[in-house]
Amino acid sequence: MGTIQLEGMEFFAFHGCFKEEQIIGTKFILDLEVESDTNVAEVSDRLQDTVDYAGIYRKVKHEMGMKSHLLEHVARRIVESIRSAYPSIVYISLKIAKNNPPLGGKIHQVCYKTRWKK
Predict the structure, then answer these.
(1) What are the residues facing 91 on neighbouring strands?
(2) Which of 81, 83, 105, 112 is a plausible cystine mate for 71, CB 3.0–4.6 Å?
(3) What pLDDT, in 10s, does the model give residues 9-67?
(4) What is the pairing mode between strands 2-13 and 109-117?
(5) Pairing relation of β-strands 26-36 and 2-13?
(6) How far is 53 from 50, CA to CA, in rounded Å?
(7) pTM score
(8) Which ranges of 8-118 does DSSP label H, i.e. alpha helix?
């Protein structure tokens, strides 16, 4: 088994419950970890024998481009999209951080983290 991590992915997106969030947008930072059997790729040195992290990034980018009210909903879509494209994945951990959330005070970010295991 091996782990692939995509850390610090940055997106400007329009997720949030407040109307202003869906108009003005804000920066989001995502950390993603996936685990799969990498034994074949370790020997073959072929991209098709492993999980393509560029493909995963494209999936995340696509889902981040679709407005949602809740981070939980965005996370679910990302996890389902990755699972569908890469059935060899047995574990996914995803953290989404929203910078400067409109909570009426100074706060750097609010985060949602989810894990999925086969």
Answers:
(1) 35, 117
(2) 112
(3) 999 999 999 999 999 999 999 999 999 999 999 999 999 999 999 999 999 999 999 99
(4) unpaired
(5) antiparallel
(6) 9
(7) 0.94
(8) 19-24, 39-44, 53-64, 71-85
The residue from 19, 59, 98, 117 that is catalytic is 98
The tokens for 48 are: 């098709």
> Looking at domain 2-117, does it have CATH number 3.30.1130.10?
yes
- Rg of the Cα atoms in the chain: 16
Task: Tell me if residue 98 is catalytic.
Answer: yes
User: Token pair 């419950």 is at which residue?
Assistant: 17
Side-chain-side CA neighbours of 23 within 13 Å: the count stands at 3
Q: Are 77 and 63 in contact (CB under 8 A)?
A: yes
